[in-house]
Design brief:
heterodimer, A: 301 residues, alpha+beta, Ribosomal Protein L22, Chain A, 4-stranded antiparallel sheet, 27% helix, 29% strand, B: mainly alpha, two-stranded antiparallel sheet, 5 helices, P-Pant_transferase_sf (chain A), magnesium ion binding (chain A), holo-[acyl-carrier-protein] synthase activity (chain A)
Chain lengths: 301, 134
Amino acid sequence: MKLDCYQRTFAHSSSSLTPIQLPAHLETHLWYVKPSEVKNESLLKQYLDILSPRERENVMQMRGEELRKSALLARTLVRTTIARYQINSQINPRSLKFRKNIHGKPEVDWQFSNDSLPPPLHFNISHTSSLVACGVTVDSQIGIDVEEKHRSIKHTVLSFARRYFSKHEIQFLASITDPQVQKLEFIKLWTLKEAYVKALGKGFSGAPFKTFTIRFKEDSIHQASEIVVDSFDEPTELTSNWQFSLLELANSHYAAICTEKHAASAEGKRNVPTKLTVWKTIPFVVDECVSGTDAVKTIYG
Amino acid sequence: MASFAASPVSFSAVSCTVKPNQVSNLRRASLSFSGKSSPSRRIPALRFRVACSAKPETVCKVVDIVRKQLALPDDRDVSGESTFATLGADSLDTVEIVMGLEEEFGISVEEESAQSITTVQDAADLIEKLLEKK
């Protein structure tokens, strides 16, 4: 069942989710929700109800109403999003179980009988107080990071970069004379680096920020055509395994998506552009496919 | 001979709110018997050391840095037990907090250590450990 883009789909009943096909092999799905658009108390109660007791506890421990709300929406988004991809039969978002890999990266703990293969679905979430996002792929590791474009930082861009970024990245930022542009480029670079580390799934110390460079490769006419990662520790073979997209969402946030490439051709890992579909959602209420609209601006990828 | 190695815990008035029971909270208590044991009594080589939690001033400074970084309202209660996550620190905040702590205390925190810090107390303990090494 193909979801027609530019369309708004309202849920049939207050607890239903519009089902959707798994992303294809080279496809990425991105779902996001804006906490400011979810105000209905009974809806929030409904969301709380689909969480596991542990998740509920974690949400209630957050200090402050806004933080509780975005924590609640983060877990709600993960559960409802995965449940949409009704793999074998109806999946109740409440019944999903999660576990962490050896490095602490969350993944689905599929509860199927032995004769069914678990679906090769991968997901990653990121949230700020103003936007919560969940990326989904099939057969490919994924890491995403979202950040408010105009998020304030306490240190200067360059002192921050000197502490955490690689030499090449520091040079890139230092070469930007306009401080506002420099700040925006800094945020973009941060989200890309975060997305990469999250895709690797080894935790912050598994790939310290200083040990890899993210840069924009230029094509023959000096246009930035591709985002690439160079690592001091990993051979080129492994770093060319990863591809990036960078978007501007809802005019307010940068979203970076890092996914595994697949050996697309005989020459090895040629860069085959991934298809990205983006939905804005209020789970159980409305889904809006926003790809191709002003809500999603592709910066790279 | 039992020997105690204890870092001084000062009870002087501090301007931030540190609950008294946290100050006296002994973490990882261990006693030390260094020295000779008589041949007839084979005391196994147990190494004990009494270590107290980080000084309240250290916890105080960490609290200040966290408050500023996260722009917390004055009525938001922050103590040693507070976790950065529940206070709303995301990954960018966390690295900025680490930077702030490095600047304030003149220390250098490695990524592995930074990753293991989840509470204000963890941060204060790590700071004192790094200061001790200097």
